[in-house]
């Protein structure tokens, strides 16, 4: 097949050339042994965009070999932090230059509005790369006094090696940056496997890797089906670490493959069923805005989607009415329509999954306060849907839906609110809204989640760690904490004065 596809952007009629090969050693190449293709679909129209090469297990082997060679020759310990920093900054500049094109292709393949892809996903991506560019020359160990007269020890924070990075489809560019930026800052090399649903922007970003001047093999990109390329990376004996974002079910498989192969280091950012608590002292108008953002941002396809909402009984009716009114105001439509604040869900599979849960909610007796009706016509659109009168054992309350579907319940006391919030196998995000500072402190401490938002929701910062408790994951991304995921601490014990008497 051709090495590039020409894709026309619907709104501007701009023609974008997208590489369609596997990216190994800074070149786009065909598969070594497979003719399989991945067909990228526009979820707003259900039409094909183009096809790209689907990498095989053999292609993963070649990419890992390229990454290993780069690690021991041009990257790893063979390049200074200053140079890694310069290259990361250069990459950020190129993404900034191309942000409109990247946003349009992201919207075409994922469905999200162009303006959101550009101003949020890509804006954050550029900042993430610059943030870790800042760290690249500051990765330092410690000097540890052992015996002033004779011995000391020091630590080196070595790059961990070749990293497999497996990313999802909900934030294709942004999750790419969260993985790539800290790994490169630490001196690791990468084999990236984007989601088979959204491979296009990872290929455009790979082109920018070469343009920025990263040595061949430092970043390799293999679009591939999860059970093929993702499984091969997780089980590979020459991969030192796998970083993953996606479902808890797949996270389990990755951990198992790591355990059964070479015990590679694993970090997992998994699913969630995140609660938001609305206390009676809260600014209700603001709380309703944040609650809407929590469940409707990215059409609910967010690992921290605030999909369970518990409201104090004294304000329940008033708050639910406000919430429904605000949720109705969001326009879900084609990502190329300026009016759209949210796009379709990403695929037919995801569409069917979300509708399956909406039907479950109705069948199990939850009350529909908003939505719940399918649209006619093309596109995987799901309008904001709010269920009230929920019970904790309903499927809509227990399972991650990954769509714009909110379950609302009530509570009397703070203790009850905390118990309801923590009644889940997940522990990714949680939110609370209250104007009582002592209550905010007590409740934020009691909530079992890796991130707790107080009087806001869903906003993240590149310098603040992110990750899950319970079955929402292992390890942390972002901030200085992410550096620990990509480094291996070596202790060097140095003797400058002790004489060993022998035999003992
Ligand atoms: N935490 C998050 O941000 C995400 C959560 N999800 C959840 O997962 C549900 C299902 O979505 P999927 O796309 O099927 O998620 P998934 O977890 O299967 O896919 C995420 C990534 O894992 C890869 N993958 C799949 N099987 C693999 C395997 N055996 N070994 C290694 N990698 C593998 C996929 O190719 C993709 O790149 C969603 O409805 C949502 O609930 C999905 C995407 C992101
Ligand atoms: N919003 C943080 C990352 C995720 O949803 O996968």
What does this protein structure show overall?
It is a single chain. This protein has 504 residues and is of the alpha/beta class. The chain has two domains: 59-270 and 468-490, Aldehyde Dehydrogenase, Chain A, domain 1; 275-454, Aldehyde Dehydrogenase, Chain A, domain 2 (3-Layer(aba) Sandwich), CATH 3.40.309. Helices cover 38% and strands 23% of the residues. The chain contains 15 helices and 24 strands. The protein has helices at 57-73, 81-97, 99-110, 114-135, 172-186, 200-212, 226-235, 248-260, 284-296, 316-328, 348-363, 395-398, 414-422, 437-446, 481-485, and strands at 4-8, 15-19, 22-24, 27-29, 37-42, 47-53, 143-147, 151-159, 162-166, 189-193, 219-221, 241-245, 265-269, 275-278, 308-312, 367-370, 385-388, 405-411, 426-427, 429-433, 451-454, 469-470, 473-474, 487-495. It has a seven-stranded mixed β-sheet with strand order 16-17-18-15-14-20-21, with helices on both faces. Helix 2 (81-97) packs antiparallel against helix 4 and helix 3 packs across helix 4. The protein starts with a strand and ends in a 9-residue tail after the last strand. Beta-alanine is lined by residues 170-171, 245, 302-304.
């Amino acid at each position: 097949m051709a090495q590039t596809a020409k894709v026309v952007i619907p709104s501007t009629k701009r023609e974008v050339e997208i590489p369609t090969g596997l990216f190994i050693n800074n070149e786009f190449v065909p598969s070594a042994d497979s003719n399989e293709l991945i067909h990228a679909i526009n979820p707003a129209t259900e039409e094909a965009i183009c096809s790209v090469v689907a990498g095989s297990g053999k292609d993963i082997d070649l990419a890992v070999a390229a990454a290993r060679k780069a690690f021991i020759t041009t990257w790893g310990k063979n390049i200074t932090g200053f140079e890694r920093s310069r290259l990361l900054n250069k990459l950020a500049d190129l993404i900034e230059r191309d942000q409109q094109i990247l946003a349009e292709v992201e919207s075409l393949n994922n469905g999200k509005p162009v303006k959101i892809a550009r101003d949020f996903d890509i804006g954050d991506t550029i900042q993430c790369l610059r943030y870790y560019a800042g760290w690249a020359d500051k990765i330092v160990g410690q000097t540890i006094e052992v015996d002033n007269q004779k011995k000391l020890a020091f630590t080196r924070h070595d790059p961990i090696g070749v990293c497999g990075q497996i990313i999802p489809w909900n934030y294709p560019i942004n999750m790419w940056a969260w993985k790539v930026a800290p790994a490169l800052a630490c001196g690791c090399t990468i084999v990236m496997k984007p989601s088979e649903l959204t491979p296009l922007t990872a290929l455009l970003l790979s082109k920018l890797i070469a343009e920025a001047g990263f040595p061949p093999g430092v970043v390799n990109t293999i679009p591939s089906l999860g059970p093929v390329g993702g499984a091969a990376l997780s089980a590979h004996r020459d991969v030192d670490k796998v970083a993953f974002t996606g479902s808890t079910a797949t996270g389990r498989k990755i951990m198992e493959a790591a355990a059964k192969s070479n015990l590679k280091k694993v970090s997992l950012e998994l699913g969630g069923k995140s609660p938001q608590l609305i206390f009676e002292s809260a600014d209700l108008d603001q709380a309703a805005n944040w609650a809407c953002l929590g469940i409707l941002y990215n059409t609910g396809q967010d690992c921290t989607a605030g999909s369970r909402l518990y409201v104090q009984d004294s304000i329940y009716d008033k708050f639910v009415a406000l919430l429904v009114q605000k949720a109705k105001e969001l326009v879900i439509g084609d990502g190329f329509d300026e009016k759209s604040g949210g796009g379709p869900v990403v695929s037919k599979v995801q569409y069917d999954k979300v509708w399956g849960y909406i039907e479950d909610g109705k069948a199990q007796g939850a009350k529909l306060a908003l939505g719940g009706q399918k649209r006619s016509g093309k596109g995987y659109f799901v309008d904001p849907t709010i269920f009230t009168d929920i019970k904790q054992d309903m499927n809509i309350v227990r399972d991650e839906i990954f769509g714009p579907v909110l379950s609302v319940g009530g509570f009397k006391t703070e203790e009850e609110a905390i118990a309801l919030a923590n009644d889940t196998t997940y522990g990714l995000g949680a939110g609370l809204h209250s104007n009582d500072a002592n209550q905010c402190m007590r409740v934020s401490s009691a909530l079992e989640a890796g991130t707790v938002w107080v009087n806001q929701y869903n906003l993240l910062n590149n310098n603040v760690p992110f990750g899950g408790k319970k079955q929402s994951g292992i390890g942390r991304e972002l901030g200085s904490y992410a550096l620990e995921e990509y480094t291996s601490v070596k202790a060097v014990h140095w003797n400058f004065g002790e004489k060993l008497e022998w035999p003992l």
